[in-house]
Design goal:
With 118 residues, this protein is mainly alpha-helical. It contains six helices and two strands. A two-stranded antiparallel ribbon has the order 1-2. Strand 1 (10-11) and strand 2 (15-16) form a beta hairpin.
């Protein structure tokens, strides 16, 4: 089941999460250059309308991208995601989350691999 989008949040009284980030950071730039809708459309069919809501497609795709960009393991990308504001922004977070709500999702990664090759 696809999850519902969440509303944006402010950090403190005056600024948003996005305003706290450097617009010249490579992941900030890349996040705004990728057409994320292509992934949403391609992978939405892998989600069911029934059952517990799944993780957002952008989150899952961004974790796979970060894993390959940084050449790190699944476990390491999830751990680093919890500590890195730019990783979270890249995955469409609207506020900094200091603990990971993401678990290793090898079923999604292998599902994408099968979908792309099959």
């Amino acid at each position: 089941m696809l999850s519902k989008p969440k509303s944006s949040s402010r950090l403190g009284f005056y600024s948003t999460f996005e305003e706290q980030l450097s617009r010249s950071h490579p992941l900030y730039i890349l996040a705004n250059q990728i057409n994320w809708n292509l992934f949403e459309e391609a992978f939405a069919k892998l989600y069911s309308e029934e059952g517990r809501p799944g993780k957002p497609i952008r989150l899952m795709v961004s974790l796979i991208m970060l894993k390959h960009i940084r050449n790190i393991s699944d476990e390491s990308v999830v751990e680093q995601w919890a500590e890195n504001a730019y990783y979270q922004y890249f995955s469409a977070r609207k506020c900094l989350l200091l603990q990971s709500h993401v678990r290793h999702q090898s079923w999604f990664i292998s599902g994408i691999g099968l979908e792309l090759t099959g």
